[in-house]
Amino acid sequence: MLHASEIVAKVEEFNFRHVVTFFNRLSDLELNSLSASAQVSSRNIRIELQVRNPVIMDRQLLERWLRRTAHPTKRGTQIEISYVAVDSAPRYQDVVDLRQMVRDLEFRPLRLRDGKPVDETEKIRVAFKKYVDEWKHGSQETLTLRGN
User: Fold this and answer.
1) 11, 49, 67 from 124: Cα distances, Å
2) Model confidence over 21-51: pLDDT tens digits?
3) Where would you tag: which of 11, 28, 34, 104 has the fewest CB atoms within 10 A of its CB?
4) Distance between CA atoms of 120 and 83, rounded to whole angstroms?
5) Residue 64, exposed/middle/buried by CB under 10 A (0-12, 13-18, 19+)?
6) 47-60 burial, b if ≥16 CB within 10 A, otherwise e?
7) Which of the 8 DSSP states describes residue 147?
8) Do residues 139 and 112 touch, judged by C-beta distance below 8 A?
9) In whole angstroms, what is the distance from residue 126 CA to residue 117 CA?
10) Which residues pair with 6 in a beta bridge?
């Protein structure tokens, strides 16, 4: 798995626990091979943010993930991650709720200290915004959207 060009993790309702567990179980050698400093341009870790019901998405879990990415001693914080918002059948109300979440995330970086959480927040916000825009413009064939 660590030699794959892309590692994909599915995250529902901002529950990143299994991603954290994955990072924590890696040896130092494996972790270093995934870090941005390893200069492996073809390797990517992509987190698919599952959009099921934005109302029940746990924002405290998102906040916990963002704080974790800011902590330099936490395993995996040196790894570059991309985010994609995905869903197979969005409902109108889900998109409306998600649009509000996008607005909320625009202001979240102002409350966090400088550094990676701002970057991670922005990447997640952009992934959800692209998802909403794609739905709004009727291209429902391609609702998998990149956060970068």
Assistant:
1) 12, 9, 14
2) 999 999 988 888 776 555 554 467 899 998 7
3) 28
4) 9
5) middle
6) bbbbbeebeebeee
7) -
8) no
9) 14
10) 44
CB burial readout 119-140, b (16+ within 10 A) else e: ebbbbbbbbbbbbbebbeeeee
Residues 53, 38: Cα–Cα separation, whole Å:
37
Phi, psi of 100 (to 5 degrees): -65, -40
Total-model pTM? 0.76
User: Quick one: pLDDT band at residue 11, thresholds 50, 70, 90?
Assistant: very high
Q: How many angstroms separate the CA atoms of 127 and 121, rounded?
A: 10
